[in-house]
# Entry
Amino acid sequence: MLVGTAVLLVVAVVLSLAVGAQGIAPADVWRHLLASDGSNDAAIVHEVRLPRTLLGVAAGAALGLSGALMQSLSRNPLADPGLLGVNAGAAAAVVAGISLLGVTTVGGYVWLAFAGAGAATVLVYLVGSRSGGPEAAGTPVRLTLAGAAVSAVLMALVWAMTFLDREALDLYRFWAVGSLSGRGLGILVQVLPFLAVGLVVGLLLAVPLNAMALGEDVGRALGLSPGVVRAVTGVVVTLLCGAATAAVGPLVFVGLAVPHIVRGLTGPDDRWVLPLSALAAPVLLLLADVLGRVLAAPAEIQVGVVTAFLGAPALIALAGRRRVTAL
# Structure
């Protein structure tokens, strides 16, 4: 199954490089990648579609893996990384940066969004562990409730700031729609170290999360500390989802739908769910991006809009199923 998903990812990458307002044959794409001849097609491949495709692969892998980790951590198959306040924290920081600091570039949004995502996650964890002893700190139910509450407050703050500042609203809408276009390799380079660390550590959490799924008492008997596992998982989710959101804006349903679909095929074993989610999510993200180019050609529909249109029916179908894959 890993090989099949990897093949699908290669196909999605080729389509992302070849399909657009100006179609380029896959053989020509390969030729331009090996040696640019200075043609218009070569410029499109190197300067527009290659950065866009690489960013889609990186952001998709981060969102897929962070969604799988969040669902395993919360024991909720319909959980989403946004429950930790990542999206709301990033949005609040971006709007504050635009309105109070005058930041107007996508490159400037990256660090604002990343800092906001991290701060919101820390706040969610503090609120979720405010009462009770060490055993109760940061339990899935507390984290979920705290994430919902903090997200609601932060989004209210976002709408208040954008209501008072029309320029901030215009710039925020551009970032908040979620897009792979207009982001050069420089954006990817800024977030790549965080994505790399998050991906490596996240994949290593498969065995501890499997043990935790048997119950915290079993986890302790196997030498694990439930609090440490939850804290490390929360940090990794923040690194992955925060970096991806900072780079491409908030993208909904990718981190929710892909791990759930993978789990339906493999069962709840995180040794399969985590790596397959990291491979399958870029496939969905790149295909949605290609679909957005085709549907409105020669203009484009941003990938955040396409994933929302694709994800809403998927979420309704999942919610309507009699039996959701147990965790």
About this structure: Residues 40-74 form the longest helix (35 residues).
